Every structure is written in C-alpha cells, then in structure tokens.
Amino acid sequence: MELVTAKEIGKLLETIAQHKESTGPRVRKYDFKRPDKFSKDQMRVLELLHENMCRMLTAFLSSRLRTTVQIRVTSVEQSSFGEFIQDIPNPGVITILNPSPLPGAILLETSPSVVFPMIDRLFGGTGSMAEIPRAVTELEVAGLGKLFEGITLIFKEAWQGVVGLDLSIQRIETNPLFAQVSSANEIVAVVSLEVRIEKYVGLFNFCLPHVTLEPVLPKLSTHQWLTGKRDTARKQHDSIRRSVEDVSVEITAVLGRSHMKVGEFMGLSCGDVLLLEARVGDKVQLLVSGKPKFVGYPARVGRRLAVVVCDEQEGSSCLKTERKD
C-alpha cells in the first residue's frame, strides 16, 4: 500500500482551488455612476445616421462659406451630461435645439477653432481665426443663427428615417452654465464630427440625452434603420411622382419635314403645297417638350385629328415611363 506524501496532498489541494476559481462566477466591474444605456447596435446606428449627415453638411457649408469644407464622424460615445458640459470651453458656442415631438433638448457645441473662421467667412472675410480668445458678439450670434438653421434642417433630414422631427433653435448660449438642459447624472450620447475649414480644424459635438431618444430607441437598430431608410426612399419617390404627374408638358406630332432655301421660303403664298420627306403611311414622331419620345400613326377622333401611339422612340432621352396593361 502506497502512502500519499504531504507534498502531493498540497499539490492536490492547490489544483482543486485553481479549478474552483476558474469555474466560479466571473466578476465584471460596473460603474454605477455611468451605466450604459445605449447598446452597441444603437451606437452603430447613430454613427451611420451622422455619416449620412456629414455628406449633406459638407455640401451645405462649402456652399454657404464659399470654401472647401471637410466633415467626418470621429467618435460616438456615451457619458454623463455633467462630463459633457465640463469639457465645453468658456466662452463657447452652444446651440440648444428643440426636437419636437421628442422630449428634452439636443445640444450642438461648436469648437471656437471653427466658429471664428465661419464667422469671418459669413461677414465677407478670408476665414481667419480670432487673435485673442473671446466670446462671440450678439451680431455674430445672429449671423451664426442663420447658418445653424440650415444645419438643423440637415439634421432633421438625416433623422427622417427614424422619426419626423420639427427641429427648431431655442437659443444660442456662450456660457456652458446657461446650457444646463438636463441633470448632471443623465446619460447622453455624444456624436463628434470633425470639421476642417481650410487649415482650421474643430468639432461639432451633438449631445443626445437618453431621455430624449428613449421614445425612438427601438428604431435605433440596424435592421429597423435599414428598413426605415428603404421606406423613406420609397415615400420620397412616390411623393416626387405625384408632384410630377400634375406638371403640364407640350406634346408635338411631327408629320414630316421639308428643306428649302430662304428664297423659296420667302416666296411661299396661300395655296402652295409643301412636299414632305415622309411617305403616306409612315409613322408620326411625337415630341415631349421638344424631345423625341414616341412614334405612332395619324388618326381621327370625330372631327379632331389624333395620333395613335404604337411604340417608344428608339434612343429616347426622356424619362422612362411605366407601361400598364
């Protein structure tokens, strides 16, 4: 009979202890001051929404500022509202938006490094930066208000697939202390857009409180967003089609053509007969707003002349039409 030594018993107990640690419940650190209220999928949809917004915003600002502007999404993070406010410089530029019918407010914080170049461009300058950091004046705020109205329209259009917003500007603040639209512990999603105006680089920071987005959080999923985007595109197509259907167009039937000299044309009088290049029984060409679209045959309805459309003009450059049997 073999006896187990004390050393072997110690190794056995150590192995059992390690096994219990490896199979026991895993402990994950959780910060109760900053609970995650937005899922990764929702944060991804927020990034997609604002990537689409960047493309529209780039074209808008380039046109309004009359210079090259580049915008891209740099980060989408969630933090507390208190931390977001603390990071805003004083003085700064904070635009408070009313996202009706959603509750609460949305904040747009604009970095001074791009605010003053935008102001300078709006007032006819070359887009230079202020030499000494200062607060914007009331006149400059009024000029920025017109620019931010266009930004809110683009934000509204970017979110159209999720919710129809009646977005409006409540006010523009220069002191972060007067932009306390939520409690300090409220969780917010912060979407940062890098704005590059020539050699100046800054940020557009959109602060989206959880309480504001809570009614539409179920729609902030990749599947719902893609479905809503397709539905929105279909609705826009139907709306454009309904609008175009009421537009009047001129349709011209060309029976035939004839070439003559200017002298022969000047000598025409009543009763003269023009010889056309077309033959009897040839198809008639139909022009829509001066462009060839259909071909048909001459006809008569009662006492009025008509054309029976029989085919589409080959190589037609007009809009395609849907045939219905």
Task: Give a short overview.
The protein has helices spanning 6-23, 40-65, 81-86, 112-122, 138-158, 210-213, 222-245, 262-266; strands at 69-80, 93-100, 106-110, 166-173, 187-197, 200-209, 251-254, 284-288, 291-301, 304-312. The protein is α+β, with helices and mostly antiparallel strands and 325 residues long. It folds into 2 domains: 40-237, 3-Layer(aba) Sandwich (Chemotaxis protein chec), CATH 3.40.1550; 249-255 and 281-313, no CATH class.
Q: Output the structural class.
A: alpha+beta
Find the count of extended strands (DSSP E, 2+ residues): 10
So what's the CATH class of the largest domain?
Answer: Alpha Beta
Distance between the termini: 98 Å
Estimate the global geometry from the Cα principal axes: elongated
Q: What is the name of the CATH architecture of the largest domain?
A: 3-Layer(aba) Sandwich
Overall pLDDT = 82
Amount of beta strand: 25-35%
Main β sheet profile? 6 strands, antiparallel
Oligomerization status of the protein chains? single chain
Helix content: 25-40%
CATH superfamily of the largest domain: CheC-like
> How do the SSEs run, as a string of H and E?
HHEHEEHHEEEHHEHEEE
CATH fold label of the largest domain: Chemotaxis protein chec
Rg, rounded, reads: 34 Å
Number of domains: 2
Strand order of the largest sheet: 1-5-6-3-2-4
- Segments where pLDDT lies below 50 for 5+ residues? 321-325
Q: What count of helical segments does DSSP give?
A: 8
